[in-house]
Amino acid sequence: MGSLLPIGFAAPWVLAALAALPVLWWLLRTTPPQPAHVKFPPLRLLLSLRNKEETPQHTPWWLILLRLMLAAVLIIAMAGPVWKPLDIAQPKTGPLWLIVDNGWDASADWERQIRMAELMVDGAAQNNRTVMLVTTADGPAQPMRLSSAQEVADQLRALTPQGWQAARSELIPALQKQAEQNPPGAILWFSSPLEEPSTTSFAKGLASIARASDVSENSFLIYRSETPVYALKQLQNTAGAMTTTVLRHPAPLAETLTVRAYDRKQRAIAEQAVELGAGQNSAEIALELPSELRNDITKLAILGKSSAGSTVLVDEKWRRRKVGLFAGGFADRSQPLLSPLYYLERALSPFADLPPAKSTDIVAAISDYFDKGISVLILAEVGTLPKNTEADIANWVSKGGTLIRFAGPQLPEKQDSLIPVALRLGDRKLGGSLSWKEPQALKSFSENSPFRAIALPKDVTVNRQVLAEPTADLPDRTWASLEDGTPLVTAKKHGNGTIVLFHVTPDTKWSNLPLSGGFVDMLRAITSISSTAVYNPDEEAEGTASAAALPLLKMLDGYGKLTPPSANHQPILERDFATTHPGRTTPPGLYGTEDAARALNLMEDEDNLVPLDLKPLSMATILDYPSEKPLDLRGWFFSIAILLALLDTLALLWLSGKLRRNQFTHAAILLLLASSLSLTGADKVQAQDTSELFALDASLDTRLAYVMTGVPEVDEISRAGLFGLTRLLTDRTALEPEAPIGLDLQENELAFFPIIYWPIDAAMQMPSPEAMSRIGAYMRNGGTILFDTRDAYGTSSNSPNKLKLQQLLRGLDIPSLEPVPQDHVLTKTFYILDDFPGRYNQSPMWVQASATTSDGSRPVRAGDGVSPIMISGNDFAAAWAIDTQGNYLYPTIPADGNQREMAARVGINILMYTMTGNYKADQVHIPALLERIGQ
């Protein structure tokens, strides 16, 4: 498209006709207007007749100017003027490459990015060009092939931003191979704002491909985003507050951001505003809450700036534990540096709450600690425990508590049940047989210990320790070892809890471990694996202990929403979790089980928002995403041309004497009124373009429709689900629907669709009364709405989605409902069905209750017997949802291939039922149906 200032032209070559205007001026000037005709008067008046109007020799200058303006306006209108046109690169030869960044940072500008890509694909379709779509977050394994523009348009509609950073550089080898086989004629890169953390520059590689393929500057376009991207990092739960750092890029203006904390039920617990000045890229916030409230936080997010980067998931690692400290001689504070509590308190206080002991009596102190809900109990310089106290501690540990003990002179000769390993008699007291010529250093941390992610401290030396008996299970219970192979820390599971023993004292008498930073890290690691609350083991779900591999439970999408995982992601080994970086195979989200989930967040403490470097692409044209849609001016110019033509007609009538002066004035006034109405009507036509396009899309082709709830992840599941159902119908039936349509209940007409899928979400907004009235009219006139609460509700469940549906249905005239009976037409329209599973198979399908006659038969109802309403909670859309390659996006629950197939059959039956009615209820079908079911 050619462009001139903010105006572009679809056919700029037409403007060459403006060069003929001087010739037109010469012709108009030398051609006089038609002479005026005057009737000859009677002879007796001949002498007195005087004609005051004379025909000029040349056309008046103002008429020539009027006609030149008319010609110029017509030429400009035919050239296709567009206000603020988009630069669209279309190859003269060769295919069009579309490279789309779909990492988490693309979510801020996703709508404009996809709109631009769709415009480019439309241009390729008009020129009959093939297109190759490449998404940078999906890696080199994605199919890179040339496709038709229509197929790529469908793929673009299915795209959503992913929850990880796009690894563009991984695509360079595959793109080079494609360029060698079929060089591109044009390259378009729809970029996101951030650079990937890689030493290989994608921009340099892409520039090299463009040069090798002879792609011109006008056919190599890079669209860059200037929309700010936000992120959270460095989450810490300190003694007084939970803190995190807010990042943004770019930072042109001052703004106020709000960070909100949510609990497990996604209820807001607290929020904190932070001011960012112009040019300021980061700031720290602190949520000052009681530790009990902070321990309820499961997520932090920047309000109104949702993305995977601006969302932090909080698991047990960040919850602040209560730790009870008890030492046999803790009342002696005269020499604090010799007190074991001195080192323990300073090591634990940065990440744990240390409630004071109620008494120096161990029985009262331990009982008080349990009442305060501690997660970890540390005993230092404690000898023989009272039997009842020992039993109470053992019971507390079995319910999930963590007990840490330290060696010392007070360790009893007769070992109790709260020691993880058998100790050697006679060698455990201070001054015993363990006396080395040189101190021993730390050698290793066990791979099955929580210390495996800690850097081995080089400055730790041990002078004395308690030795363990060399039993067969000692290696499995050893968490840390010295150079000579003897254990420094041992542990064992006791019920649902853990008992840990440091084979040295908590002060500096036996080692310098308490003076090392490694001591803090070791205590932090042990504390982090403890629970924030001791739970009942009878209520503990099976399999919550840390397994060798942690499967992906829920993943963060590009908008920062937790969604079910797909089959393309890998579990993370438990021992590697602390060092795993989020990416395509291990996306950010929750891993493990519902009761013991581990959070993997996108932003790590050392990460920053690095701006995308486009300097290597000097040969390309770099553009910003347009802030508004282009405006087609052809209608305006044609309206002006019509106005000028009418004025020319009036001028000719006036010059020929057929129109008097007062008549000319009246005609000019009417003409101006008509033209003003036509120009104002142009705005209305422009405003009606969207509704007319929607009507054409919905009526010219059969399409499935879903209600847009305003919740992005729910709407995306609906779109992907109906897209999958469309493919199923095309493959298995004679019906070939086009891509599904999302409905705005406030704006769009519903009558085009035989059935509308309406997912229910507790967070969605209630429709207006006007919209509810239109919905009621749609159902009364033969339309069907399938309501899906997506929560697998049973007969007695009152989930938030079910309550939202009840609130919604109060505004509609709903008939009596019943679960689908066994003889209902819905069970046999295409497949023979017994139940109606989706992603779940726990909820019944409700339809309009059939009236029964006196003999118990079901008569045929009006409207072909199609129920105006269906209700389920089995999450049909998630069961049908596929990506552009045909892979199912969400697993069925339970994971069962047969359930997936039955869900597909349910979708086909529902569509056939709503489109064909109750024809299968006719008796003529009964023999064939009986034969199919083997009766």
Give a structural overview:
The chain is 28% helix and 19% strand. By secondary structure, it is of the alpha/beta class. The chain has five domains: 2-84 and 633-692, no CATH class; 96-104 and 113-226 and 610-624, Rossmann fold (3-Layer(aba) Sandwich); 229-318, Immunoglobulin-like (Sandwich); 321-531, 3-Layer(aba) Sandwich (Rossmann fold), CATH 3.40.50; 701-932, 3-Layer(aba) Sandwich (Rossmann fold), CATH 3.40.50.12140. The strands form nine sheets. It has a nine-stranded mixed β-sheet with strand order 16-15-17-18-23-22-21-19-20, with helices on both faces. A hairpin with a 2-residue loop joins strand 28 (589-593) and strand 29. Helix 5 runs parallel beside helix 6.
* CATH topology category name of the largest domain: Rossmann fold
Averaged pLDDT: 81
Strand content: 15-25%
Low-confidence stretches: 427-434, 535-547, 680-687, 853-863
What is the level-2 CATH architecture name of the largest domain?
3-Layer(aba) Sandwich
Number of domains: 5
Q: Major β-sheet, in short?
A: 9 strands, mixed
User: Which word captures the global form?
Assistant: globular
The structural class is: alpha/beta
Radius of gyration: 39 Å
Our measurement of the CA-to-CA distance between the termini, rounded to an integer number of angstroms, reads 68 Å
- Major sheet: arrangement of strands: 16-15-17-18-23-22-21-19-20
Q: Compute the number of strand runs.
A: 38
Number of helices: 20
